Amino acid sequence: MGDQFDQAQALDQLLNDVALANHFSRVERVRPLVIDGELCCVACEEPIEPERLGTAVTPGRCIICQQRHEREVRRYG
Where are the dksA C4-type-classified zinc fingers (predicted)? Predict the structure, then answer.
């Protein structure tokens, strides 16, 4: 019985890994600008909010510009 659970758990982990890899391969990688030693948005050139800088992936846009970008991507593909 344990073997079936182990196989199911391994398959579940594999599917999760594949889903994450697919997601991150589609994520646009934008590097922030560095202006006067500060990480700044590539769109508006304003400093990126400190709470955004605490994430695992360094954002390239401030919150406002990222939201605007995501709306445009949804609208125009």
Answer: 41-65
**What predicted TM-score, i.e. pTM, was given to this entire model?**
0.58
Tokens of 45: 């050139």
Per DSSP, what are the bridge partners of residue 38? Answer: 35
Distances (CA, A) of 16 to 23, 42, 52, 77: 11, 32, 25, 25
Numbers of helices and strands, H then E, in the chain: 3, 2
Task: Report whether 60 contacts 30 (CB < 8 A).
Answer: yes
Q: Residue 61 phi/psi, 5° resolution?
A: -130, 155
Rounded to whole angstroms, how far apart are CA atoms 39 and 56?
15
pLDDT > 80? residue 48: yes
